[in-house]
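Input.
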Amino acid sequence: MSIAESRRLSPRVSLFLLASILVSFVAASAAPTPLYEIYRARWDLSPIATTVVFAVYAVAVLASLLTFGKLSDHVGRRPVLLVTIAVQILSLVIFILANGVPALVAARVVQGLATGAATGAVGAAMLDINRVRGTLANSITPGIGTGIGALLSALLIQFLPAPTRLVYVVLLVILVIQGLGVVLMRETVTPMAGALQSLRPDIRLPRAARGPVLVVAPVVFAVWALAGFFLALGPALVRALMSTSVVVGGLVVFVFSLFGTITIILLRNTAARTVMLTAITALIIGMIITVVSVTAESIPGFFVGLAFGGVGFGGGFQGSIKTVMPLVEAHERASVLSLLYIICYVGFGLPTVIAGFLVVYGGGLPQTANEYSVAVILLALVALLGLRGAGRASPG
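Output.
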C-alpha cells in the first residue's frame, strides 16, 4: 500500500462522512423554510411565490436524480461528490446574495440539481462500504437532515444576526470541510465506460410490479404532498393559528421529520403490509387531528397531528419501497425506483403550488390546510382499499 493510500480515511470514517454529507445537503434544502416569512415581509413574497420557489427545487431534484443518478457508477463516487459539493456551495452563495424572488428560484434550482446528483452518489457509496449500515443510513439521513436544517435555521434567525445569511454561511463552511474529507476518501468503485449513456433516464415498469405500484402510489403521493405542504407553508400556518416565535415554526418541520425517522428505524424489519397499514392509519388519524386542531386554533393539537403525519410519511415511503422493490429483478431496480421517485416529487411539488393558489384565491391558509388534510385522508382511504384488495387477491 502506498503512503497516499495509507492516509486515506477508514471505511467506518468514510461511511460517517458520507452520511453527514447527505444530512448537510438535505439540511440546506430545508434551511429556507423558516425564512419564507422574512422573505415575505422584505420582498412581498406571496404564498404562490413561496410554493413556486419550493416546487422548483422538487423539479430540479427529480431531473437530476433521473439524469445523474447512475453517473457515479461510471466516473467514480468521489468526482461526482466533489462536483456536487461545489455546486451546492454555489447555491448557498446565491442564497447569501439573494435580493428577490428570481434569485431564490435560481438558488433552489441549483440546489436541487446538486442534491439529486449527490443523493445517488452518496447512497451508492454508503452501500459500497457496508450494505447493512449503508441501507439504514440511506433511510434515516434525509429525515435527520430535514429536521436539523429547519430547526438550525430557526434558531439562528431567532438568536443571532444576519438572519437571511448566517445559516447559509454555516452550511457553506461545513460543506467545505466535508469536501476536504471526500478528497481523503478511498474510491469505492472502479470507473467504467458508458458515462454518457448513463445520463439517459430509464423508466420502465415490469408487469410483476404494475399492480403493487398502483396500490402504493396514492400513499407515496399523499405522504410526499404532506411533507411538501409542511415544508413550504407549515411555519406560516403556525403563525396564522397563533403569533409565535420563528423557532416554533421551525419545530413544525423538525417534529414531522423526527417522527418519520423514528418510524423508519422501528419498522425497518417489519413486513411491508404491516408497515403500509401502520402508515395509512397514522395518516388518517393525523389528518383528522390536524383538521380539528386548525379549526379550534390549537397549537398542541396541531403538533400531535403533525407527529402522526410524520409516522405516516416514514412508514408510507418505507412500506412502498418494501412492497414494490422485492418484486423486480436486479437489472430493473433502478428503473422502477426512478418511477417511484417521479411519483414522490410530483406529490412533493405540484399539490404545494395548488395550495399556494388556494391560500390566495380560496379561503386562506387555515381553510387550505383543512382541505389539504381531507385530500390526504381520501388518498389514504384509496390506498387502504387497494391494499385490502391486493391482500384478498394474494393472501400469501
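Residues 188 and 396 are 39 Å apart (CA to CA).
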